[in-house]
Specification:
CATH topology of the largest domain: Rossmann fold
Distance between the termini: 55 Å
Strand content: 15-25%
Number of helices: 8
Number of domains: 2
Bound molecules: flavin-adenine dinucleotide
Shape: elongated
Helix content: 25-40%
Largest sheet: 7 strands, parallel
CATH superfamily of the largest domain: HUPs
CATH architecture of the largest domain: 3-Layer(aba) Sandwich
Strand order of the largest sheet: 5-9-4-1-2-3-10
Order of helices and strands: EHEHEHEHEEEEEEEHEHEHEEH
Oligomer: single chain
Number of strands: 15
Length: about 350
């Protein structure tokens, strides 16, 4: 019989599980039910008992590694914690969120346990065996993987499962002691990237895409790049949406043109960019050409604001298109969001 371990970690508060961890919990519960397997959830957090309060009815055995050493991501302490949890659970299948914290350590942990690892898993199926799906070649080819080697580590892409939701309660947690190696790294805090704004937020419900139109000459014959930047950042600030971009807009930086300084190629969505998985997307000042829109493959509900009534979005690529000037529309939207807060 398989022994499934779902590894989870706390979010920035240190006492609640991250959304991606709760998604992995859902995946673990489904898989364990299908395979009639044992299910264990392992928690790594500064305050694991409080983090476990979101799991009272998961039906799983709960193991935790807790303490100040696990408050922040650090290879040595996180890898030691994950290894100890895997050993305590005698895990044959290990599911973990593909977060930056776990992506960094999990290949090393798999190696320590003589296991195998696959990453970017988007789905789990199979009733006799575990069948794990992932996409290759820019989301064009979907492969279904199975392995006989154990333990098998599977890192799950965010947004592929619903987050496990439970009534808060008291959960019975077994604490696992970890022998920490000498810690040579001290986490002294976070330094935010460009302009203090972290704009790529995989956990956000909404993807906001900025296209090259924001920096183009507008009907008054002038470009309004500073205003565009304020409107975009104002919207992100009010909604905590994730910021995506078209290729044309991020490429402008390399061509010496004026460009929105908080955008980099990491924001690019599309064939040669990212393929995120937000529930909703709002495109602005973007033409909706195919190489861009293929990056929207997994976006559930799509809306666009474009001046061009013949743009790609109006040709069946969006659910709703507002043929309008995005400057006044976004200014009005931001004002409504601001008013709703007060
Ligand atoms: C091999 C290859 C790979 C590519 N990969 C990607 C990729 O990964 N991602 C990607 O994005 N592109 C990619 N492209 C480029 C893609 O084909 C388009 O050129 C690009 O997406 C266009 O960006 P855009 O729509 O922002 O700009 P534009 O085509 O310049 O469109 C700007 C739009 O803004 C509108 N607009 C202007 N002002 C306003 C306003 N005030 N209000 C509302 N709307 C306004 C205009 O009407 C226009 O529709 C690729 C191309 C190739 C050949």
């Amino acid at each position: 019989m398989e022994s499934i371990l779902v590894l989870t970690h706390a979010d920035d508060t240190g006492s609640a599980l991250s959304k991606a961890s709760l998604e992995a919990v859902t995946a673990g519960i489904d898989l364990a039910a299908r395979l009639s397997a044992l299910l264990t959830i392992g928690i790594i957090a500064a305050d694991a008992a409080t983090a476990a309060s979101s799991l009272p009815s998961s039906g799983a055995r709960l193991l935790a590694v807790s303490g100040e050493a696990f408050a922040q991501a650090r290879y040595a302490s996180d890898a030691a914690a994950a290894e100890a949890l895997c050993r305590a659970a005698s895990a044959t299948i290990v599911l973990a969120p593909g977060s930056s914290r776990f992506t960094r350590i999990m290949a090393g942990v798999a190696h320590r346990l003589s296991g195998f690892i696959d990453t970017h898993i988007t789905g789990l199926s199979g009733t006799e065996n575990v069948e794990a799906s992932r996409w290759f070649y820019r989301q064009r080819i979907e492969a279904v993987l199975s392995r006989s080697a154990r333990p098998w580590f599977l890192l799950l892409d965010a947004g592929t499962h619903a987050a496990f939701a439970d009534e808060a309660g008291t959960a019975q947690v077994e604490t696992i002691t970890v022998e920490l190696p000498a810690l040579r790294t001290t986490v002294s805090g976070f330094r935010a990237p460009t302009l203090g704004a972290q704009t790529i937020r995989p956990d956000a419900k909404l993807l906001f895409v900025a296209g090259a139109g924001w920096t183009k000459k507008q009907p008054d014959g002038q470009a309004h790049v500073a205003e565009a930047g304020d409107l975009i950042l104002g919207f992100l600030h009010a909604t905590s949406a994730s910021l995506g971009s078209s290729k044309s807009l991020v490429d402008q930086g390399g061509e010496g043109n004026s460009v929105l300084p908080f955008l980099t190629h990491l924001n690019q969505i599309g064939q040669t960019g990212a393929t995120p998985r937000h529930a909703k997307g709002l495109s602005t000042c973007c033409h909706g050409e195919e190489p861009h829109v293929v990056g929207w493959r997994f976006i559930g509900s799509r809306r666009a604001i474009s001046l061009d009534p013949n743009c790609g979005w109006t040709r069946g690529k969006a659910d709703v298109v507002y043929v309008a000037d995005a400057f006044p529309v976004m200014a009005k939207l931001n004002a409504l969001l601001e008013a709703a807060k007060t």
